[in-house]
Structure formats: structure tokens, C-alpha cells
Amino acid sequence: MTVTPPRAEHTTATPAPSRSDAPDPGGRTTFVSRGFLARAAFVTVVLSLAGAVLGLGRDQALAHLFGAGRETDAFLVAWTVPEFAATLLIEDGLAFALVPAFSAVVARRAHGDTGDPGDPVRALVRGTLPQLVLAFSVASALLVWGAPYLVEVLAPGLPDPRLAIDCTRLTGTCVLTFGLAGYCSAVLRAHRRFVAPAAIYVAYNTALITAMFVLGGRWGVRAAAIGVAVGGALMVVAQLPSVVRQLRRRKAATAPEAAEAAEAATTDTTDTTEALDPGDPAGDPAAGRHAMNLALLLTVLLFALCRQSQVLIERFLASTLPAGAISHLNYAQKVAQMPMVLALMLCTVTFPVVSQALAEGDTERARDRVERDLRAVSCVVLLGTAAVVACAPQLVHVLFQRGAFTAQDTAATAAVMRVYALGLLGHALVGALVRSYFSAGRPTWYPVAAMTAGIVATACLGAWTVGSWGVLGIAAANAAGITLTALILLHGMGTRGVPIRTRSLLAAMGRPLRAAVAACGAGAFAASLVDSPALGLTVGGTAVTVLFLLLAGTPGGQGLTPALRTVTRRLPHARFR
């Protein structure tokens, strides 16, 4: 997620001590030890990875039960709704608007400045939740009512849209449940409670998998859509007890908690908007909803929407191809994106360091951190790309070829995966670079313009190649479009983002790029020597990893270890429940 602290002129808290064990006036430590923070972060990462693994299991269940035909294509058209809802309501937009406001009133509560309305946190809930619930409910109702029109726009080439319409009506409820889940996540993150928000995708994907196996025999692929509806509700249920505990708190916090909350209001790691000043003499907790930098929020939302529209273009074009094309694209992307997801975890962890450096005017430190992160991300992604391209047939066979997913589906999905993987470096660089553009807490339209250029290129190339290359043309257009966006973002970093040394960075990325090409060839050759797909995947993956590390060095040496060391020094105290 893109994260940015409020601008320096809006901060009121005293700067945090540089030592992780510095005492506060009350005699207790304001910051946790590195070991505790590492253990707490480990728990959060484990839950996030568990959700990702269950997401892969969800795709395996979908392939096993329904294969890659008309039914799966129809569900994946309806699946567009929860994909967009998750991006805007859980992962990006809603958090950008709510976390700063809640961080501010949590700081006011911690200082004992409850003001006339009583508890400021509950006052802010009363001032925002009813309106948002109404908005989410109306949006869900409109999606249910307008499902036929939405399916016609998203996939006009579907031979029988009725199944897609039924699935869309079921998944349309996720706007309400995802919105409430995102609201709960914002409340908990502002209170420095991270485990429950990290666990929501475990609950969500568990519900999807269970629904497909329990109801699939009777309801077909509609069972997956039912799973989306139930899983969205479980996202809320998983967080509700923790939210209720925080809202029931009445007394002012102790001195360490006050310092922690004040730090949260000024350097919160999950917002991109300006926080309400805890010392605002107006003392109106509900005013937090008016303290948002709307221009910044608008640019972030437009960027997220623009990037997510790649999925719309791909499914729109694939709907004109034979049945199964949308499914092959979906399976290929979900697996190929795993290296990118793992690589971007580094940027998520180190982003507060960049934000704090810019807020303090230390451009040199911010530049050094961004350059290290980009080198580490490129190493991880290039290693993953080499493995995916080299062992795609074996990987797809091991993961999906069972039940209704045939050998022909394996061959088609593996071919798409290899082409799509050519854009993984571009996808990872875009995800890493856009954080730097928004790190200064100012609205900037450059990332939106760069993403728009990439989307236009994807649409034009896809429309041009889909007739002759089919689904491979769509995957190639995706890779070309996102690579163009990454190059535009790199070009603008010097004047609009963190001023990195682009030429030296590209030169440093040349070595792992050459290593990836060599490792890919060796891995593909090694995998082809073995008949067993599982053994071939093991042999090929091992060959890719060993040769890449020999030629390029370890990704951790490029910046992963220093990044984690910096984070344990800088991040404020957090509780994990």
C-alpha cells in the first residue's frame, strides 16, 4: 500500500527518540526492543503470507472444480467487482482517508483531551460510520440491480451472460462488507493493532474455498460467488471484537501511550493524507473527516483505478476469444505475481523510513533508502521471473492439473504465464516507485499520467494483437504497457519524486538482469530433462536459484538486511493482538 506521513507543518508531537529503548518521562519505554518488533512483524508477515497461500489454494480449488471454461470465465467477470472493491476500500483509498483522522483523535484521547463531546474516537465513529454505511449500501444495491449492464460492459463477448450476471449480483454485496472491513482496519491500525487486519484475507479465502467444495456440486461456480459474499462478512467479524475493545476505552492513556499515539498522528505508516491536528482548539472529533487532503486522495484513487483497469482491458478483449481465455489469463497472473508480491513487502516495511526522512528534509537518506529498495526489489523479482519462465509448464501442472483442469489448459496457461512474466519487473518497479512519489504528502498527477500512458499502450497493443496472437497478445500488451509506465516513473523521479541516481541504478540492475537470463535458460534445460512435473519443477527451480545467486549475488546483500535493520531502529512502538 502506498503510505505517507502528514506534512511537517501539521505535526505537533515531539520528535521520537532515536534509540529504540529510550525512556519516557513516566519511566517506561516508548519504543520496543528490536527483538520484540521483529517477532511482532514476523507474526504479521506470517498471517499475510497465510492469506496469500490460501488465495493460491482458492485458485487451485476453482481450477479443480470448474476448470477453465465458460463457467469459470463467467465467475471471473463477476470477480472484477471484489478485485476493485478490495483495492479501493481495504488496501488503498478508504485507509488513506480514515487512518489520519483516527490517528489524530487517538492522540487526543491519549493526551486526555476528550473535549466536550466525550470520547473523541467514538465521536468520530458517530460522525463518519453512518454516512459510509449508507454509501456502501447504496453502491451494493446499485451493483445488484445493474448487474446485467455491468456484465455487458465488462465482457460483451460472453456467449451466455446469465451466469455472469448471477455471480455479479452475489459478489456485489462485497462493496458493503469490504467497506466495513476497511473501516475496521483503519480504526485498528490507528490504535496500533495490526494482527486482526492482517488476518482478514485468511478468513476471506477460507470462506471461498469452503463454499466451493460444499456448495459447488449443487450450485456450480455460483458457489464461489456465494463464498465472496460470506467471506466479506467474515472480514468484518474477524476484526469486530478488537474494534469494540478500542471503542470502549474511556480513560486517558499513560505517558508512553500518549507519546505513541502522538507519533501515530504524525508518522502513521498507513496514510497518505493530512491528519487532524490533535491540539486543534476547536476540539471537534468529527472534523477529522474534513481534514483530508482531497487533492492527494483524488490522485491516489485515480492511480489505483487506472492501474486496476488493466484487468478490465484484459477481460474485455479475452471475452471475444474462445471459452477459457479469461481463465487462462487469471491463473497465469495469480501465480506469476507471487515474486512481485514478495518483493514489494520490502517497500511496505521500509516506506516509513523514506517518509520520515522527507518530512525531516533529509533527502540524502531518503534517496539512499529508495535506491537500496529498488535494487533489492529488482533482484527478487528477476529471480522469480527466471524461475517462472523456466518452469512454467511444470509449475502449472503441479498447481492446477487435476479434476476439470486438463493438459490443454496447462499448456495454454503456461504459455500465457511466460509472456506475462516478462512484465513482472515493470509491475514491481511501478509498485515501488509510486510510493516515493506520494511520500512527500503532496498531490502529484505525474504517476496518474504515467499509468494512463501505460494503460493506453496496453489497450492499443492488445486490440492490435488479440486477433492474431489471441490471449498471448493480451499478455504481451500487459507486459509492454506496465514496462512503459515504469520507465516514465523512473524518468520523472529526479524532479517529481525522490531524486534517485537513475543511471547508476539502471547500471546496478544490469547484473541481476543478465544473471536472470542465464539462469532462466539453464533452469528450462534442467527441467526438461525430467519427466516428472514435480521433480522437474524442483530441479529447474534449484538450477535457476543457484545460478542466479552465483552470478548476481544474494538479494539480501542488495538491501534487504539493511532495510530491516533500519526499520527496527525507526518504527514506533506497536502492539499486536
Automatic annotation (TrEMBL):
<dbReference type="GO" id="GO:0008360">
    <property type="term" value="P:regulation of cell shape"/>
</dbReference>
<feature type="transmembrane region" description="Helical">
    <location>
        <begin position="340"/>
        <end position="359"/>
    </location>
</feature>
<keyword id="KW-0812">Transmembrane</keyword>
<feature type="transmembrane region" description="Helical">
    <location>
        <begin position="380"/>
        <end position="400"/>
    </location>
</feature>
<feature type="transmembrane region" description="Helical">
    <location>
        <begin position="420"/>
        <end position="438"/>
    </location>
</feature>
<keyword id="KW-0472">Membrane</keyword>
<dbReference type="InterPro" id="IPR004268">
    <property type="entry name" value="MurJ"/>
</dbReference>
<keyword id="KW-1003">Cell membrane</keyword>
<feature type="transmembrane region" description="Helical">
    <location>
        <begin position="170"/>
        <end position="188"/>
    </location>
</feature>
<feature type="transmembrane region" description="Helical">
    <location>
        <begin position="511"/>
        <end position="529"/>
    </location>
</feature>
<feature type="transmembrane region" description="Helical">
    <location>
        <begin position="132"/>
        <end position="150"/>
    </location>
</feature>
<feature type="transmembrane region" description="Helical">
    <location>
        <begin position="470"/>
        <end position="490"/>
    </location>
</feature>
<feature type="transmembrane region" description="Helical">
    <location>
        <begin position="221"/>
        <end position="241"/>
    </location>
</feature>
<dbReference type="GO" id="GO:0015648">
    <property type="term" value="F:lipid-linked peptidoglycan transporter activity"/>
</dbReference>
<keyword id="KW-1133">Transmembrane helix</keyword>
<feature type="transmembrane region" description="Helical">
    <location>
        <begin position="535"/>
        <end position="552"/>
    </location>
</feature>
<keyword id="KW-0573">Peptidoglycan synthesis</keyword>
<feature type="transmembrane region" description="Helical">
    <location>
        <begin position="195"/>
        <end position="215"/>
    </location>
</feature>
<feature type="transmembrane region" description="Helical">
    <location>
        <begin position="36"/>
        <end position="56"/>
    </location>
</feature>
<dbReference type="GO" id="GO:0034204">
    <property type="term" value="P:lipid translocation"/>
</dbReference>
<protein>
    <submittedName>
        <fullName>Membrane protein</fullName>
    </submittedName>
</protein>
<feature type="transmembrane region" description="Helical">
    <location>
        <begin position="445"/>
        <end position="464"/>
    </location>
</feature>
<dbReference type="GO" id="GO:0005886">
    <property type="term" value="C:plasma membrane"/>
</dbReference>
<dbReference type="InterPro" id="IPR051050">
    <property type="entry name" value="Lipid_II_flippase_MurJ/MviN"/>
</dbReference>
<feature type="region of interest" description="Disordered">
    <location>
        <begin position="254"/>
        <end position="283"/>
    </location>
</feature>
<dbReference type="GO" id="GO:0009252">
    <property type="term" value="P:peptidoglycan biosynthetic process"/>
</dbReference>
<feature type="transmembrane region" description="Helical">
    <location>
        <begin position="294"/>
        <end position="313"/>
    </location>
</feature>
<feature type="region of interest" description="Disordered">
    <location>
        <begin position="1"/>
        <end position="27"/>
    </location>
</feature>
<dbReference type="Pfam" id="PF03023">
    <property type="entry name" value="MurJ"/>
</dbReference>
<keyword id="KW-0133">Cell shape</keyword>
